[in-house]
User: Fold this.
Amino acid sequence: YGYGYIMAENKNIALETSSLIPNDSVHRSKNETSRTKKLLIITLVGSIAVLTAIVTLHRNGHGHGHRVVFPPNFVWGAATSAYQIEGGSTAGGRGLSIWDTWCVQSSENCNGDTGDVSDDHYHLWREDVELMAKLGLKAYRFSISWSRILPSGTADYAGEVIEDGVEENSSARVKGINEAGVEFYNDLIDALLENDIEPFITLYHWDLPQALEDKYGGWANKSIVEDFADYSRICFDKFGDRVKYWITINEGWTTAIHGYEEGSNAPGFKGEDVGGSGKPYQVGHHLLLAHARAVEVFRSEEYANMYQRGRKDERGLIGISNSGDHRFPLDPNSEDDQEAATRSMEFQLGWMTDPIWLGDYPPSMRKILGTRLPNFTEDEKKKLVGSADFIGLNHYSSAFASKPSKPATYGGYWADQLVTLSGKDSWKKTEMGWYVVPDGAREILLWMDKRYSHPLIFVTENGMSAYEPDKEHSIHDDARVEYLEGYIRGFGQALGQGVNLGGYFAWSLLDNFEWQYGFSKRFGIVHVNYTTLVRTPKSSAEFYSEVIETNGGVLPE
Assistant:
């Protein structure tokens, strides 16, 4: 049932109960009766041991028939991001982002589409909040558009000297803030709270202000660290009294690899090792430093204590969301394949997580990349270690990993890992070509729990792109229902084994602009007609609503 697990049924254990029942019509001697009783006792003890093992497997989340149990305070939510749903690209004083620019540079980018209108959430947010309430969402994860708050990307802190000679950095004295953008997010947050929906805010979800890309090359330049800190400070100051949960960076791995290695995401650079000018490992380094600096602002400048909706001693929490696919060793008995599976996960999830929990990049990356991987100063390490109250996990798929049989004929990040990825013929695939492997949901949480010493984890994204050529197929999205059911059970099984899982966010609330794929891929549990902008809940929305209402009780055994 679960890859790599030995089930009782695989041991070919058969209990011939008929042979254990004595035949009353046959007279045995006392010795024979005694031997029979002993045999019966021994066999029963063995049977109980087998049944106990099976029950234990079920309780631990392995095997059929186990009902996962979620705690009463488990957070059920859905997620989106600003550029993917907001639209209103020039409304209310918003500045351009790198995606506004990149999508129009070539018809080959973004499937020829743009996020100029998308779901028009900027104008339809009230309707969307009402929809969330009807679905029963307990939380909503969304991102803030950096260029909607700071059109130029930077803040001008005039600074005001106070009595002890320290400059005050309150956003009330900052020039360059777009108050219309602040008002939009204030209204959204207030509406969510009025409907008992907890806001989870992501500060950066890939839509860098174009002004910063033009000014110094965006994430490729270390100057961005302080600009991100200034932007974060403004968000903390404007919204922190009502927002408890903050996420600094969403999937730094994706920004670095797709934006500065493969060139498939904005700003569209190919890596140096594949003939371009992109430096993915340098970009990843700056993303981590920006995260640490934002957390330093949050904590040292008392924004963590701004939160006012909870108990007097309750404070705001801040974390990071990292992408992570699980890797099973192709041959679980092969040490080479075991190492390949670990190495593959270290090059993705570990790259952006190890420095925060373990103090440096994964050993495999240090060994393979050498001087190509930047070093942290001792001061940077101090700021990084412990700079998250929780890990956000964006998980969609899994694969087998093995040691390559021959050297790669290509260069760059994918060659650096020294890993060959493959799948199983019986595994289904999503419209993105990603394997559907619910067992991986359980296994990656167990891997994280062990590696990072039992951290608080939120699954901040999980979902699929299904075959939806028309509205009829879209509304009856049985494949997505099956996917969500399997993955939520997998996450629940990990929770049952002791993982500190605080919540789950389905990706995505709405069909939306899917980055380099434009509107050709649909991930939403709610269908959006991109012409009329009408929202229609799918079968998956109805299913997920029942999951929330029953706190997972609707999941089949």
Remarks:
- Residues 1-65, 160-166 have pLDDT under 50 and may be disordered.
- The chain has 18 helices and 19 strands.
